[in-house]
Amino acid sequence: MTVSTPTRIPAARSQADRADQTRARILEAAVRQFSANGLAGARTEQIAEEAGVNKALLYYYFRGKNDLYAAALESVAEGVRLSSLAVLEGQGTAGERFLQSVLNHFDRFLANRGFQSLMQQEMVRLHRGEAHALTPLVETLMRPLVRRMREVLDEGINAGELIAAEQSQIHYAALGANVFYFLAAPMMRLVEGTNPLEPEALRFRRKAAIEFLGQALFTDREHGARVAARVLAAAPMPQADERLKPFQCSSNECLERSHPSRKNKDAARVGHPDNNRGEHPGNNETGSNGVTESSGGIESKNAAGSNSRAATGKVRRK
User: Fold this and answer.
1) Phi, psi at 301, each rounded to 5°
2) Which member of 31, 144, 279, 317 lies 3.0 to 4.6 Å from 65 by CB, making a disulfide possible if both were Cys?
3) Has residue 216 been placed in a domain?
4) Among 34, 250, 222, 13, which Cα is nearest to 121's?
């Protein structure tokens, strides 16, 4: 009788696996903290505590808070890139894959608010002229996705399935509608007296957006209606991510998150331990969880309805 011996995992491999798991936990906690509080507002003590490690171990994996922020940004962008490309390269006609991609984009606002918040923080940094703002997202996520989406649109137009409109305009119209719906939600709540972010309102808008594109972009509207119905049936609305605060905020809240010294001047004068470690070299007060991305320079409004500039403080309307 042959006696089998248990397979032993080499100690080095087991240790490497544990190290990878620890690093992943730290990154997950970092995404949550940076999303909620911004780069300047997040504290490494909180990140380490949430990840279940001590601060010394956090610094073993990451040189400082800036390094950790960059790694968190890249990790969440890579996840979005993989899921988005999988949709664009999946089954179905070019028109169907495009509608699936638009729906995936809408659902990302619901289920991945951490990414949306980090994206908006990077937009704030870009408007303020900070070095390397948005660079990881552009290289890892935006450029590959835009290129692939334009290729899918070309395929649909050349096949006669989609209308012969300029590709970038289709792109802006389809994804821009999603962006505007979420960014304008606080204003529309005041205008209409209803909450656009309630589940039923989201479910209605999600369905209406895809059905509209099925009618507007397809040369055969009956075919477009069938494609839209098929896309919606194959992808039920995901559960909203409730771990993070909604990414809309008033202008004052945005400024507080971008400039924590405004929120707590005493703490800024005394100096936080994180600052003493040199984690904020130069102009590192960044991060905003608020409305920064718009078409045509939309100004945010606070609950009292008074006009206030966007978080950059540079937008003017004539």
Assistant:
1) -130, 140
2) 279
3) yes
4) 34
The two structure tokens encoding residue 248: 């809309």
Copy the structure tokens of residue 112. Answer: 């991945």
Place of tokens 């649909």: 156
Number of domains into which the chain is organized = 1
Q: How many C-alpha atoms does 284 have within 13 Å on its Cβ side?
A: 17
| Secondary structure class of 251 (helix, strand, coil) | helix
pLDDT digits (tens, 9 = 90+) for 45-83: 999 999 999 999 999 999 999 999 989 988 888 889 999
Using one digit for the tens of pLDDT, what is the confidence trace for 98-114? Answer: 999 999 999 999 888 88
CA distance 102 to 27: 28
Structure tokens at 57: 């171990």
Give the max Cα distance, the chain.
Answer: 89
Q: Which two tokens stand for residue 106?
A: 């809408």
In order, the DSSP letters of 214-232 are: HHHSBSSHHHHHHHHHHHH
Query: With contact defined as beta carbons under 8 Å apart, do 310 and 299 qualify?
Result: yes
**CATH, residue 215:** 1.10.357
Do the domain assignments include residue 176?
yes
Residue identified by tokens 């409109």 is: 165
Domain that holds residue 181: 73-234
